[in-house]
Specification:
Elements (H helix, E strand, L loop, with lengths): L2 E5 L2 H13 L5 E5 L5 E3 L2 E3 L1 H10 L17 H8 L12 H13 L4 H11 L5 E4 L6 E6 L4 E3 H7 L6 E7 L8 H7 L2 E4 L4 H9 L4 H5 L4 E4 L2 E2 L2 E2 L4 H9 L5 H7 L6 E5 L11 E4 L6 H26 L1
Parallel strand pairs: 1-2, 1-9, 2-5, 9-10, 10-13, 13-14
Antiparallel strand pairs: 3-4, 6-7, 6-8, 11-12
Helix pairs in contact: 1-2, 1-12, 4-5
Length: 312
């Protein structure tokens, strides 16, 4: 069994944690969004990659959803004392990740190689790939403040400016191993990440969507009961599609790619035209993640088997 999972930050990382434990080592490849990457205080920050790495390594701060557990922020306090930009919270231990990544990039090492090295050092048994080795920046066109880089809009401005469009800058190829992993896999899972800013950047890379369309793809809805579990997705759906936020809106966003969707129990009626699994999708504990991951894998296997039977 080979599974590829596309992931953004917190929600996607938590599902990856469940999938990593439900599958044997080497059966899962996580392809992680890097459209959020940016340079801050001279350091190359990869927020979604870091969240995935820390979560899979059992080191994440579960309450915040990002950063390391038992973290301190003395360095950030000193930046603030100097009058420097303190809007992006860099923890003291977290700095080690950014320092090593930045130095390796300056030495000409590819981001995918650096990620493999960091994951190996953290004892992560499943494969984690950045979506691209080159820069591919997510840009937010706002109604009142022009165009903002994603982190400026999301963190510095707390996702307050109304979004008019999401676009991407750059033309990198998918990272080494991305297309091969998709070609070799049996199933693909789209994690409960924001479609517009966490999954679409991956899908927009040359060749990725074409490769995925040859595979059974199942999505996990990040909308529960008309609201987003975390972040500004519900508002973005209204602003960008004109629809009410629902799993059905997620399914329609992925139309032509997703063959089935997993939704919170009670939300099934919002989806039409594809198979739906209703279950408990809110992952409040590591046990919840494992249970949900096993349900997703059973569902995607059933969908794939059904599709194979129809094809015959």
């Amino acid at each position: 069994m080979k599974v590829v999972a596309l992931s953004g930050g917190v929600g996607g990382a938590r599902l990856l944690d469940g999938l990593a434990r439900a599958l044997r080592p080497g059966e899962l490849t996580a392809i992680v969004n890097t459209g959020d990457d940016f340079v801050h205080l001279g350091l190359h920050i990869s927020p979604d990659l870091d969240t995935v790495m820390y979560t899979l390594a059992g080191l994440a701060n579960e309450e915040r959803g990002w950063g390391l557990a038992e973290e301190s922020f003395a360095g950030l306090a000193m930046v603030r004392a100097y009058g420097g930009p303190d809007w992006f919270a860099l923890g003291d231990r977290d700095l080690a990740t950014h320092l090593l990544r930045t130095q390796a990039l300056r030495d000409g090492v590819a981001l995918s190689s650096i990620t493999a090295r960091l994951c190996g050092a953290l004892g992560i048994g499943q494969r984690v790939l950045p979506m691209a080795d080159g820069l591919y920046r997510t840009m937010i066109d706002t109604a009142t403040e022009g165009t903002l880089a994603f982190q400026e809009w999301f963190v510095q401005r707390r996702a307050q400016p109304t979004v008019r469009a999401v676009r991407f800058e750059g033309e990198p190829a998918p990272a080494v191993g991305v297309l091969d992993a998709i070609d070799a896999c049996d199933w693909v899972v789209l994690g409960p990440s924001n479609p517009y800013v966490s999954v679409d950047p991956i899908l927009a890379l040359d060749g990725v969507r074409d490769a995925l369309e040859r595979k059974p793809v199942v999505a996990l809805s990040p909308i529960v009961g008309g609201a987003a579990i975390k972040g500004p997705l519900a508002t973005m759906i209204r602003d960008l599609s004109g629809e009410a936020p629902s799993p059905g809106a997620i399914a329609r966003h992925y139309r032509g790619l997703v063959r089935a969707i997993v939704v919170e129990r009670g939300d099934e009626a919002t989806v039409s035209g594809i198979p739906v699994l209703g279950t408990a999708t809110v992952m409040r504990s590591r046990a919840d993640r494992l249970i949900l991951a096993r349900e997703v894998l059973e569902f995607v296997a059933a969908v794939a088997q059904r599709a194979a039977g129809v094809a015959r």
